């Protein structure tokens, strides 16, 4: 399910020191969406970012492969993508259109990683 209808437009606040795998990002939300797509299989406890619209989200340092842990302080463990989208929509209406995302990023992940499996 796509979260493209939750675009960010404001500055992000990030607490990503170089030794941390956690990132707290605060983004503005508009009718156009955040500009990301989340993916989650049935065995994944948390969803991960599978698409980033770089024209809409680049200033917030989100990367493909980032794992979403919390939305506005609420742990999304086991949530369906639709439930996460609803939490983003509902919270931003009450909170000046701000969305706080707690993400986990592998220290070894890079946006352009590719793998060949034989």
Please, could you describe this protein's structure?
This protein is an alpha+beta fold and 118 residues long. It has one domain: PDZ domain (Pdz3 Domain), CATH 2.30.42. It is built from two helices and six strands. The chain has a four-stranded antiparallel beta sheet, with helices on one face. Strands 2-3 form a two-stranded antiparallel sheet. A hairpin with an 8-residue loop joins strand 2 and strand 3. The chain is globular. InterPro entries: PDZ, PDZ_sf. It comes from Polypedilum vanderplanki (Sleeping chironomid midge). Pfam families: PDZ (PF00595). This is PDZ domain-containing protein.
Briefly characterize the structure.
The chain has 118 residues and is α+β, with helices and mostly antiparallel strands. The chain is built from two helices and six strands, in the order βββαββαβ.
Which whole number gives the mean pLDDT? 73
Main sheet: strands, sense, barrel? 4 strands, antiparallel
Q: How many angstroms does the end-to-end distance come to?
A: 30 Å
The CATH architecture can be given as Roll
Helical fraction: 10-25%
The succession of helices and strands, N to C, reads: EEEHEEHE
Order of strands in the sheet with most strands: 1-6-4-5
Q: How many separate domains make up the residues?
A: 1
Shape label: globular
What is the strand tally? 6
Question: What do we call the CATH homologous superfamily?
Answer: PDZ domain
Backbone structural class: alpha+beta
Uncertain regions spanning at least 5 consecutive residues: 1-17, 111-115
In CATH, the topology is named Pdz3 Domain
